[in-house]
Amino acid sequence: MIKLNRWQWGRQLQWGIVLFVIFIFLNLFFFDTTAYFKSISNLVFSLITLIIFMISTGSAKFTEKRFKLTKQILIWVSICLVVTVSEMLIYNIPNNIYTVFTHSQFWTNTFFALSAAIFEESLCRGLFFLLS
C-alpha cells in the first residue's frame, strides 16, 4: 500500500513541475561552465529536491509495508543475477568498470550519476508517483 502524503495531489504536481522546469533552466544557465561545476550544481539541486520530497511525505519511504521475500521472488532474483553476471562477462564489462574508476574525471561522472538518480527518484517516484 502506498504511503499517504502530507500534501494534496495538486500541490505535489505543482512542486514537481516547478522543480523540473528549474532543473532544465539551471542546466541551460550553467551551459558554459565546467563539467565539474555543473555536476556539483546538479547534485546540490537534486538533494534539495530530495528534501522537498521528504517534507511532502514525512519520510523517505513511499510504501507502508516492506516487501516480503517469498520463494518466487528469490528464484527470479537468482535468475536475474545469473543473466546479469553472464552478460557482464560476455561484453567485457569488468574492463569498462576499471576504465571508469581510473578515469581522470571520475568524480565528475560520479556526481552526474548521483544527481540523476536522486533527482529522478525524488521527483518521479516521490512527487509524481504518490499522487494518489
**Elements, N to C (H/E):** HHHHH
Radius of gyration, Cα only, in angstroms?
Answer: 19 Å
Extended strand count: 0
Give the helix/strand class: mainly alpha
On the 0-100 scale, what is the average pLDDT?
84
Shape, per Cα inertia axes? flat
Give the N-to-C terminal Cα separation. Answer: 11 Å
Helix content: over 70%
Strand content: under 5%
Low-confidence stretches: none
Main sheet overview: none
Keywords: Membrane, Transmembrane, Transmembrane helix
Transmembrane segments: 12-31, 43-61, 73-91
Report on this model:
Keywords: Membrane, Transmembrane, Transmembrane helix. The chain crosses the membrane at residues 12-31, 43-61, 73-91. The protein is mainly α. 73% of the residues lie in helices and 0% in strands. The protein contains five helices and no strands. The chain has helices at residues 9-29, 35-57, 71-90, 93-101, 106-128. Helix 1 (9-29) packs antiparallel against helix 2, helix 1 runs antiparallel to helix 5 (106-128) and helix 2 (35-57) packs parallel to helix 5. The longest helix is centred in the middle third of the chain and has 23 residues, at 35-57. It is flat. The chain starts with 8 loop residues before the first helix and ends with a helix.
Topology readout:
Layout: H1 9-29, H2 35-57, H3 71-90, H4 93-101, H5 106-128
In short:
The protein contains 5 helices and no strands. It is mainly α and 132 residues long.
Keywords:
membrane; 132 residues; single chain; mainly alpha
